[in-house]
Amino acid sequence: MDNLVYELDPKGDIFLILDNVSKDFPYNLRDITTVAGWPDGLSNPPAPTSDWNKTIKQEDDGSSGDAVDSAKTPKSPPQRRLQIRASSKHLTLACPQFQRTLQNGFQEGTELRATGCLKFPVRDWEAVPFLVLMLIIHHRTRLVPREVSLDRLVEIAQLVDYYECHEAVEPFSNSWLIHLKIRSLSPPHYIPSSDDEARKWISISWVFNEANAFQESSKYLESKSTSTISFSGLPVPSTIQGELHLISEVPYHLQYPSQLQMRSTVPGER
């Protein structure tokens, strides 16, 4: 397996490990911004499937197909592993989720204190948004993109929601939201153009506490959706999903405009 190591802190005590990352990631972190497609065009390759372990029948030999031609047996596709050398201090200060995981009494925290170093396999996240988040947390801000696509921001929002690092990301999320017109500095406010875009707006505006965008995207779904509204894979609380589902079942002319209101609770303070 091909291994990449990106040092965000040369004295870092945690190696965050992501498997199966894109072959387009450069060997040197400082070259990341020169890669074509950064930050929106780099995605994890599809995970290997069981097809790679299947045997190939012999061809044109008249056999029953039970024999195996070893020369034609496919090999597993090459994978790349990314190890991000990070600082537990930075992670725990910025992310309550990491703070809980690395505290005394948990296996990871116990190992870190016993050995002074920890290899930490992270969840099956896309590598680019996770790297962007780690760059922000470790103050490597020159490498952080000032603009991202809507789909990439959805992925970043999911990470921010999971690791609870809203405050750390805020200086960059502000510019991302303005660029995508999710945040408008003055009227008129931009309106989503499709159900898919509106669902993504709701998830992003919930995480980053964007009340106007939340209202506009909710109203759009209330008026346009004719079936169950699904937020599969998006960081939208079940209570919000439930209310939107109920609203979508009521004829629009019987609804009060914008029945769904963003809660006063700020996601970062829940």
Question: Could you please describe the fold and organization of this structure?
Answer:
This is BTB domain-containing protein. It is built from nine helices and four strands, in the order E-E-E-H-H-H-E-H-H-H-H-H-H. With 270 residues, the protein is an alpha/beta fold. It has a four-stranded mixed sheet. Helix 7 runs antiparallel to helix 8. The chain is globular, with a radius of gyration of 23 Å. The two termini are 41 Å apart. The C terminus is likely disordered.
Describe how the helices and strands are arranged.
Elements: E1 2-7, E2 14-19, E3 80-86, H1 88-94, H2 96-101, H3 107-115, E4 118-121, H4 127-137, H5 150-163, H6 166-179, H7 195-207, H8 211-224, H9 238-248
Parallel strand pairs: 1-3, 2-4
Antiparallel strand pairs: 2-3
Region (Disordered): 38-81
Protein name: BTB domain-containing protein
Going by helix content, strand content and strand pairing, the class is alpha/beta
Low-pLDDT stretches are: 50-61, 63-74, 248-260, 263-268
Largest sheet: 4 strands, mixed
How many distinct helices?
9
Shape category: globular
Gyration radius, in Å: 23 Å
Strand order across the largest sheet: 1-3-2-4
Separation of the first and last Cα atoms: 41 Å
Order of helices and strands: EEEHHHEHHHHHH
Kindly state the mean pLDDT as a whole number?
80
In helices, the fraction of residues equals: 25-40%
Summarize the structure.
The protein has 270 residues and is α/β, with parallel strands linked by helices.
